[in-house]
Design a protein that fits this description.
single chain, about 400 residues, alpha+beta, Chorismate synthase, AroC fold, five-stranded antiparallel sheet, about 20% strand, globular, binds flavin mononucleotide
């Protein structure tokens, strides 16, 4: 007899970014943005309205520029869904750029004065485009539209198993907050109603004032977001190999979001200042289940989910395109020149939170599929329920218990 308890629910496969695959294409002012999404099982309820909810959330936020007033993002599902359910085949997504007719026949002067903090100059070095508009069109965070659409599919899968992902803003410029308890639906509702994605109206007012001040100075602001996934089972990710560690995969996913420059799991930004006894999460038994006294580790230990909420915080740098010119050069003249200004956001931290939710959802959906596998929901559901039933000392939340 093996001394290991069978884990009938889980497939003995790797859990890393391999099952769910996706690519985006499209330029910021081109006709449309596209995504192909592969690896989701059949049977997930999915409509264009499901995607529209998150796409609209990404467009909001105090401090956005004129572009978001032009676009009314809506993703068309071009394949992989029949009668409101995923088929198991690749899902095609298409979002039209409503700004395209304004650009199609426009004669635009070459963009030759790179903006510090953008891909402009590095893209010129790499691809040789002396008109750096060709670089900026693809480097633009307009691409995050498709991330959010793909993330909405991932959310649909995760929600079948009791998982929910929320975000809030913790800092804009010098205005900081500890944030609210996102496990409380009233706090989540307040965040969703806020123009800067904070629950506290006094903090919202201070952040809006900071954005107004930056705008009046012809400058921009960054800040910090927090994204939390509730209801993840223990055992997603793995400690056994560097590329299967869920903290590492999440860090890469968040760092890939435009302008994100630092990523922390749980209290990662501040644990370096503390004693060890103030940095970790003690345990105790509660009616037969192990509960944690705190969640400083952000739900991940050894690169594996430990059953606590998974917490990622990330710092977004201030918007690089500033109305106040920055020192730069002109590739056309070979002379020093102030950087070129393009229509731009003053602050996009709240939108970055919504993009972060999408990246969290995609990573967790992949880790979930890596662990449980299955080609349709009906096949996956009993695997999850067997796994959770056999898991000693862990109590699933009510949403997961209801979902299996
Ligand atoms: C939601 C969102 C909106 C953004 N909007 C702008 C913008 O309007 N103007 C701008 O200069 N940068 C904006 N950015 C950031 C740039 O896309 C980003 O700084 C640039 O592509 C260079 O990439 P890097 O900062 O990751 O190196 C935005 C980022 C996000 C996440």
């Amino acid at each position: 007899m093996s001394r290991y308890r069978p884990r009938n629910g889980a497939r003995p496969v790797r859990s890393s970014l391999l099952i769910v695959r996706w690519l985006t294409s499209g330029e910021s002012h081109g006709p449309c943005l596209l995504a192909i999404v592969d690896g989701f099982p059949a049977g997930i309820p999915l409509t264009e309205d499901d995607l529209a909810v998150d796409l609209a959330r990404r467009q909001m936020g105090y401090g956005r520029g004129g572009r978001m007033k032009i676009e009314k993002d809506r993703a068309e599902i071009t394949s992989g869904v029949t009668q409101g359910l995923t088929t198991g085949g690749p899902i095609g997504l298409r979002v039209e750029n409503l700004d395209w007719p304004n650009w199609r026949d426009k004669v635009v002067a070459p963009f030759t004065k790179p903006r510090p903090g953008h891909a402009d100059l590095a893209g010129f070095f790499k691809y040789g485009h002396e008109d750096m508009r060709i670089v900026l069109e693809r480097a633009s965070a307009r691409e995050t539209t498709m991330r959010v659409a793909v993330g909405a599919i991932a959310r649909q899968l995760l929600s079948q198993f009791g998982m929910a992902i929320h975000s809030q803003v913790l800092r804009i410029g010098r205005v900081a907050t500890d944030g609210g308890d996102l496990s409380d639906p009233a706090i989540v509702n307040a965040v969703e109603a806020s123009t800067v994605r904070v629950a506290d109206p006094a903090v919202e007012a201070a952040m809006r004032a900071a954005i107004d001040e930056a705008r009046s100075l012809h400058d921009t602001l960054g800040g910090t977001i927090e994204v939390i996934a509730f209801g993840a089972v223990p055992g997603l990710g793995s400690h056994v190999q560097w590329d299967r560690k869920l903290d590492g995969i999440l860090a890469q996913a968040f760092m890939s979001i435009h302008a994100i420059k630092a990523v922390a799991i749980g209290d990662g930004f501040s644990v370096g200042e503390r004693y060890g006894t103030d940095a970790h999460d003690g345990m105790r038994f509660d009616d037969g289940a192990i509960v944690r006294l705190t969640n400083r580790a952000g739900g991940l230990e050894g690169g594996i989910s430990n059953g606590e909420p998974i917490v990622v915080r990330a710092v977004k740098k201030p918007i690089s395109t500033t109305a106040k010119p920055q020192p730069s050069v002109d590739l056309a003249t070979g002379e020093d020149s102030p950087s070129q200004y393009e229509r731009s956001d003053v602050c996009a931290v709240p939108a970055a939170g919504v993009v972060g939710e999408a990246m969290m959802a995609i990573v967790l959906a992949d880790a979930f599929m890596g662990k449980f596998g299955g080609d349709n929901l009906a096949e996956i559901r009993p695997r999850v329920s067997t796994y959770v039933r056999d898991l000693r000392y862990w109590r699933p939340g009510p949403a997961l218990a209801a979902g299996i």
